[in-house]
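Fill in residues.
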């Protein structure tokens, strides 16, 4: 299989590329990545010189670039995105451009190249906040922040390409991922970094918002299963089965690092903060997937991984100083 992975130098993308190269000896992978602040060649350390991996630096929004990237490709895993909610609140522009228009370019190029499979990685955020029973794939989408609105747009655009043009698309809707190589703007790596430097931990509001944590390795197994086995035109929820209030996750990070709870500071909330994400994942369970990595062990190992890779974190944060200064001013 000749696989194109967009966003393959980001957090989930780089884990996915490693997963594919490790588990599919017949696969070769082309990564197309713009290398924004969130992406780095470094994230592919250990596989960059694998002869089955080709790395292309480029923008999915650029028509000629994405068309060239599709040449000789059988399957596409589309992960490239502006993935951070807080940044999309400061300015939605990059998210609209990459997540919606960029996804449009990917689907168009895949259609023109007659690619056999397109896995579109959406998110649980497209359903919006959950106040009742966990969402199933048939529930309406109700995104409530600019990031999730662009992802919902792309999710439905992907579906429309299946219905209208017969593009063989599968849509994955994963919950919050955690694991190695996550850019340190997201809760777990960011709080690990700050706790290690004895800096306060800026908890939005009361910290009782609920996220369902999914280890990135479990997620990669699910993506591969869907890419290879799911019927086109279907959407699948993927969750870790670990719904936790943020405070519980934060206390576990602190505990693993042996730091005091006095580092916790409740700060101004994220505007439009979704109180809870929750999905029913019985549809993908029926295809033969369930998460394997136990939450507490997974979080502790991940926190250790960040603590052991502080140079990598330092370089990642340095790519984005302005953002941290702007968003956390007063928080
Ligand atoms: P990330 O921010 O770590 O990585 C995104 C990658 O995309 C980076 O390497 C970046 O350089 C690249 N990229 C951005 N704009 C691009 C463009 N215009 N052209 C080419 N490459 C571009 O994101 P992530 O956390 O790995 O998320 C990957 C995908 O999974 C995204 O689509 C995201 O919406 C989705 N998702 C993430 C999570 C999560 O918890 N991280 C959960 C659900 C869904
Ligand atoms: O649910 C899937 C989504 O998960 C993905 O689609 C997104 O790409 C990914 O970024 C993630 O979104 P969240 O907004 O849930 O992740 P984040 O790590 O930014 O925040 C997790 C929770 O922690 C959220 O409730 C906000 C809170 N938080 C986060 C930060 C960075 C804080 O309280 N303080 C912080 O400084």
């Amino acid at each position: 299989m000749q696989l194109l992975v967009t966003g393959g130098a980001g957090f989930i993308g780089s884990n996915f590329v490693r997963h594919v190269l490790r588990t599919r000896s017949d696969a070769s992978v082309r990564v197309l990545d713009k290398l924004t602040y969130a992406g780095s060649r470094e994230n592919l350390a250990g596989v960059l010189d694998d002869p089955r991996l080709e790395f292309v630096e480029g923008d999915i929004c650029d028509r000629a670039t994405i068309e060239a990237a599709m040449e000789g490709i059988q399957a596409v895993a589309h992960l490239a995105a502006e993935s951070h909610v807080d940044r999309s609140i400061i300015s939605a522009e990059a998210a609209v451009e990459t997540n919606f228009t960029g996804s449009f370019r990917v689907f168009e190029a895949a259609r023109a190249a007659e690619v056999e499979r397109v896995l579109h990685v959406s998110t649980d955020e497209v359903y919006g906040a959950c106040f009742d029973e966990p969402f199933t794939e048939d529930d309406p989408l109700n995104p409530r922040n600019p990031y999730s609105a662009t992802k919902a747009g792309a999710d439905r655009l992907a579906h429309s390409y299946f219905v209208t043009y017969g593009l063989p698309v599968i849509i994955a809707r994963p919950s919050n991922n955690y694991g190695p190589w996550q850019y340190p703007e997201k809760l777990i790596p960011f709080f690990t970094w700050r706790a290690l430097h004895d800096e306060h931990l800026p908890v939005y509001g009361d910290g009782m918002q609920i996220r369902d944590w999914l280890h990135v390795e479990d997620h990669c197994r699910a993506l591969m299963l869907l890419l290879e086995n799911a019927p086109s035109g279907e959407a699948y929820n993927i969750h870790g089965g670990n719904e936790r209030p943020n405070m519980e996750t934060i206390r576990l990070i602190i505990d693993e690092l042996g730091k005091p709870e006095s580092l916790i500071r409740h700060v101004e909330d994220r505007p439009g903060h979704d109180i809870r994400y929750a999905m029913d994942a019985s549809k993908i369970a029926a295809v033969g997937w369930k998460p394997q990595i136990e939450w507490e062990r997974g979080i502790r190992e991940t926190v250790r991984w960040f603590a052991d890779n502080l140079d990598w974190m330092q370089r990642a944060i340095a790519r984005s100083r302005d953002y941290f200064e702007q968003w956390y001013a007063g928080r």
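The two ends are 48 Å apart (CA to CA).
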